[in-house]
Amino acid sequence: MRNILLLLALLLTSTANAQQKREFRGAWIQCVNGQFQGMGTKKMQETLVYQLNELQKDGVNAIIFQVRPECDALYPSKFEPWSRFLTGQQGKAPSPYWDPLQWMIDQCHARGMELHAWINPYRAKTKGTTALATSHVAIQHPERCFDYDGLKILNPGIPENRDFICMVAKDIVSRYDIDGIHMDDYFYPYPAPGQIIPDDAQYRQHSNGIMDRGDWRRYNVNLFIKQFYETVHETKPWVKVGISPFGIYRNKKNAAIGSNTNGLQNYDDLYADVLLWINNGWLDYCVPQIYWEIGNRAADYDTLIRWWNQYAGGRPLFIGEDIERTVKHADPSNPSQNQQLAKQRLHQQMRNVKGTVLWYAKAAVDNTGNYATQLRQNYWRYPALQPEMPFLDKKAPGKPRKVKPVWTQDGYVLFWTAPKGKQWGDVATKYVVYCFAKGEKLNTNDPSKIVTITTNTFYKLPYKNGNQAYTYVVTALDRMQNESKVAKKTVKL
């Protein structure tokens, strides 16, 4: 028994040591499933506080929060009505009044998390919505939408729709201190039996000489993605643009570059040429939804993570993980356990994989299949900085100044002063505090030595009796989490 316990301890240590210091650890919080609908302000805030607290314990450092599921808004908008997924009736403001997006930004930032505002670009009505507000774009401009399998879709072939979505995005980015803006996998609608996309008139009017209808649809989406990316970065150059495409780009039977899979395809079925966007730099991170299990016959997880790692490394690559499916299926090499460990090992083997986004947040909060326990105790045990994005900004801020321990009424506190900075890329927005025992090498690449990542310019020291010397290292982070040189101070605790 003792040998088994030692072996388990070694396994945990080896996995923890394999943790990356920089890793995107996201979770999607969706509203379109109705989990907040009609809940009321107080109850929804209580629910979100609980979810965020649990996710923080899990090691999550970014929340992707759905704010626009069907050309509506979970924030006050002059362009789109309040969402029924908030109040139960589209166009009805919450009562007591609040702004869920601003509230979530404040809550996430207070916990050291990023907040990425998640919008669905083209979907104007979900299947379950029976009434639209008079201010809704589909009521105001029905000619710009088409019906498809119970949905309403803003027609991607109409230029005014690209402008409209970009206007909405610009409004969000300019008014809110978000860290990112995020789109999921709905471009042209998912194919449905017997349904035809009614875009003959737009093709005749805007074909631009493109002879193939599929190429023309991809051209429409490409124009939008480029315009969207440029709109966001012209507004605020530090706001990250993220896209979460369906997990298969193309099947090998349709294209030599494709994966050895047999399922729906971004390129052919959704008209989303994701690799073009990555290679042209029209997004800042990509989160393919690889929701299947290892060993799936049509879409094997192992095959797909290797494919994305090989072909999508031009921008930071994060993997969309389905918690429920991961814990439901057994590890093929060890049927006594689920697939969480096997998938984590694959992540660590992939050179271009820089993070994970959990589908979905509540499954982690509920600790489905013990998934969150493993995150806390093992895989995400230590804090992580965000992956670097040198294509946006690679210059680090100056290091913290005047690092000094001071006795206060609250105890022994380490204080420092922010470095000087004028441009957005030079200003310190957070700080990393490391702790090293006497005689220990000062290795800031070891995430186990991070005691906090904070927006404060102070850290309360764990004073005991003043007999033990420790060296504290403080570094500054800018908006893109470029890290400064170290400032250090030895204290006796």
Short description:
The chain folds into 2 domains: 18-379, Alpha-Beta Barrel (TIM Barrel); 401-492, Sandwich (Immunoglobulin-like), CATH 2.60.40.10. 31% of the residues lie in helices and 22% in strands. The protein is built from 15 helices and 20 strands.
Describe, in plain words, how this protein is organized in 3D:
A hairpin with a 2-residue loop joins strand 11 (330-331) and strand 12 (334-338). Helix 6 (159-175) packs parallel to helix 8. The model is unreliable at 4-17 (pLDDT under 50). This protein has 493 residues and is an alpha/beta fold. The protein folds into two domains: 18-379, TIM Barrel, CATH 3.20.20.80; 401-492, Immunoglobulin-like (Sandwich). The chain is globular, with a radius of gyration of 24 Å. 43% of the residues are buried. The protein is built from 15 helices and 20 strands. An eight-stranded parallel β-sheet has the order 9-8-7-3-2-1-13-10. It has helices at residues 2-17, 41-58, 84-87, 100-110, 137-140, 159-175, 200-206, 213-235, 266-270, 274-279, 301-311, 323-328, 340-349, 361-365, 371-379; strands at residues 24-29, 62-68, 114-119, 123-125, 145-148, 151-154, 180-183, 240-243, 285-286, 317-322, 330-331, 334-338, 353-359, 401-408, 411-417, 430-437, 450-454, 458-460, 469-477, 487-492.
